[in-house]
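Here is the promised in-class demo. Please do not try to memorize the tokens; focus on the logic of going from shape to residues.
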């Protein structure tokens, strides 16, 4: 009791010192920024002392000389074991009574840890929350420096990486626990869209020939990118428009103010990696998600389901494999890239002639005249014989359009108000992957990269706070399955 009283007096003294410092600063006319800094440092110290008061009020968790646990009698160990607890206010030591069979064996029950819902690691759940909220937005080093600047708490890059991996292990179960969006808040069109984005990787293990200083072969790089499959889904209201409206919007590079916003947008990214001893393809995981989410968000089958992607054959094959029963649409912006490529076979880059060429053919495509556009390009190639790279360039453009013409029914799509541009997944590739994973000098290992992608997706989807609550509940349930029984014993002992 004397120790608890001393702790309480310390926090009271700290509060009085702060109020005294404010009065003296006012009398001396000290600059407000200096007062603010002094107050902040004092508040952190006051918070640490008051948190220590709270812990001391709980006692050590001594529930008597013995404790029954699942039919076994555990004995109170003589030594009180201290736990390092790093809170947002600073580091605290928690002295706990431990129950087990003997000192050298596993500590089976620590009543005070269960009562406090203490995390398994040294870092508080709140500090983990704040630290990782920084880490999913910037490098580990920068994040650690920011936390130290604000809270005065130093964390190594290694500890932040470990914290990130531990948190990410709860992401899959969290996603599975989330209900589908309220049907009344959804639009009548469900859009599924996917794309690929490279993540710069480290080699998991250097080739043997390099271990002894061997040279790489020509063109071989020390590091390479691994493709992450990025998926996004949302619902939206129909937006009917004419071909001319789309052309004007595209060339003006301004979004039509009447364009509806995506509703309940969700995104994630998956690397091909080993899971439970088997290599799992990232595309398979994304399309499995599409299949499951489509059932949840379109349970009554009344929504129009649109699958909107670029021309990557592997993605369309996955859509066929997973029987994504949907209206398949080729992204119009990738089509435009091929039209520009064809235009530069005949006209200088940046010329008015090239722009007129693309405008005319884009308008025709949007009006459903795909065959005429393809035929016209072939005819131009015949009338104006091309050689070398330009010939290959035109052939590639024509082949692309021919291979994807059954995904280019743009007159039909526009009539029913379906989206035809994959801007959402393009943005997801940039925001989810590129902005965090491709910083200067960044190289990732598979496990660490996937952990970061999982947590960053949770953050960008707006689910961060819900995830933190879920994670705390799951960890507490796993760590302290006996908590309810301990609480009853605690209450009887009080």
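The designed amino acids, position by position:
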């Amino acid at each position: 009791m004397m120790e608890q009283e001393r702790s309480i007096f310390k926090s009271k003294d700290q509060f009085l010192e702060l109020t005294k410092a404010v009065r003296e600063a006012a009398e001396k006319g000290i600059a407000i920024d200096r007062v603010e800094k002094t107050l902040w440092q004092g508040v952190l110290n006051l918070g640490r002392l008051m948190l220590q008061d709270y812990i001391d009020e709980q006692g050590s968790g001594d529930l008597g000389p013995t404790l029954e646990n699942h039919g076994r009698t555990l004995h109170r160990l003589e030594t009180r074991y201290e736990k390092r607890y790093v809170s947002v206010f600073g580091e605290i030591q928690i002295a706990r009574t431990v129950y087990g069979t003997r000192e050298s064996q596993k500590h089976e029950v620590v009543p005070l840890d269960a009562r406090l819902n203490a995390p398994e690691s040294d870092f508080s759940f709140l500090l983990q929350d704040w630290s990782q909220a920084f880490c999913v937005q910037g490098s580990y080093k920068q994040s650690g420096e920011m936390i130290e600047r604000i809270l005065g708490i130093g964390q190594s890059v290694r500890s932040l990486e470990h914290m990130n991996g531990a948190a990410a292990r709860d992401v899959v179960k969290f996603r599975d626990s989330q209900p589908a969006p309220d049907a009344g808040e959804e639009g009548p069109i469900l859009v599924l869209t996917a794309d690929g984005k490279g993540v710069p990787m480290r080699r998991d293990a250097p080739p043997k020939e390099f271990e002894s200083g061997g040279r790489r072969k020509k063109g071989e790089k020390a590091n390479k990118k691994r493709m992450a499959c990025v998926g996004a889904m949302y619902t939206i209201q129909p937006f009917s428009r004419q071909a001319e409206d789309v052309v004007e919007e595209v060339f003006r590079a301004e979004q039509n103010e009447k364009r509806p916003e995506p509703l309940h947008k969700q995104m994630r990214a998956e690397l091909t990696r080993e899971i439970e001893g088997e290599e799992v393809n990232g595309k398979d995981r994304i399309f499995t998600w599409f299949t499951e989410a489509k059932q949840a968000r379109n349970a009554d089958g009344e929504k129009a389901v649109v699958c909107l992607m670029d021309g990557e054959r592997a993605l369309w094959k996955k859509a066929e494999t997973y029987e994504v029963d949907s209206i398949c649409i080729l992204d119009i912006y990738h089509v435009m890239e091929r039209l520009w490529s064809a235009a530069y076979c005949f006209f200088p880059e940046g010329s008015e002639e090239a722009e007129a060429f693309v405008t005319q053919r884009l308008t025709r495509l949007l009006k459903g005249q795909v065959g005429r556009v393809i035929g016209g390009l072939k005819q131009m190639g015949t009338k104006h014989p091309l050689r070398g790279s330009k010939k290959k360039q035109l052939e590639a453009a024509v082949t692309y359009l021919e291979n994807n013409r059954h995904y280019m029914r743009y007159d039909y799509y526009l009539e029913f108000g379906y989206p035809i541009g994959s801007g959402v997944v393009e943005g997801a590739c940039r925001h989810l992957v590129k902005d965090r994973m491709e910083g200067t000098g960044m190289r990732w290992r598979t496990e660490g990269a996937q952990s970061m992608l999982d947590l960053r997706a949770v953050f960008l989807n707006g689910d961060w706070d819900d995830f933190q609550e879920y994670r705390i509940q799951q960890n507490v349930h796993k760590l302290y399955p006996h908590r309810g029984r301990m609480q009853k014993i605690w209450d009887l002992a009080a």
